Amino acid sequence: MASPDKQQKRAQRAKAKAKQNRSGKFKANVVHPLLANPLIDEPFDDVEIDLSTFDFKDIEENGFDPAHFDDLFQAMKVGEGISLLAMCLVFLQYPVLELVVAEEAEDAATDFMMGLLITYRGIFHDEDEDSAVNWVGGDAFQNAYNEASMILQKKNARGPRV
Questions:
Q1: Is residue 151 part of a domain?
Q2: Domain limits for position 157
Q3: Which of 13, 52, 155, 160 could form a disulfide with 31 if both were Cys (CB 3.0 to 4.6 A apart)?
Q4: What is the DSSP code (8-state) at residue 69?
């Protein structure tokens, strides 16, 4: 029997292949080549997230449980295996993050995003908070984040995919 890690990778490949088959293979006029990858473009389509139960005020007052964001962190890890830009694209498409950015004050949304990124770096790169903050503030991350933001703005300006 294959290891759990290998089984998970197989399941991800099968999921990506099934989504690719459903969406009619490669789409022409893709805003960016990374968006041709179903693990990067709308990676949370098949993940059930109940936004109606999301309580941002509770997170502001008590912090968040990283286990509640495991689907995000796992998808970010897959994206990071491709490139930093791919990881940023995945991160910015997370429905909970989109909700927080749309409905909360800019400072609160930024703090939430930083918390997620710092937690991700702690889990997958064994970094302390200072190292993670330096990584987020570094040129490589900032450039990838800004480029991902621009790519998603262009994609969203085209309207939803059919």
A1: yes
A2: 32-41+63-162
A3: 155
A4: G
Give the whole-angstrom CA distance, residue 147 versus residue 89: 9
The CA dihedral of 125, 127, 129, 135, to the nearest 10 degrees, is: -70
**Residue 3 forms part of a structural domain:** no
Nearest to 116 by CA among 58, 73, 71: 73
Query: Model confidence over 89-132: pLDDT tens digits?
Result: 999 999 999 899 889 999 999 999 999 999 999 999 999 999 99
Say what the pTM is: 0.77
Q: Is residue 48 part of a domain?
A: no
Reference 108, options 150, 46, 58, 41; nearest CA is 58
C-alpha distances in Å from residue 89, one per residue of 60, 107, 111: 25, 21, 19
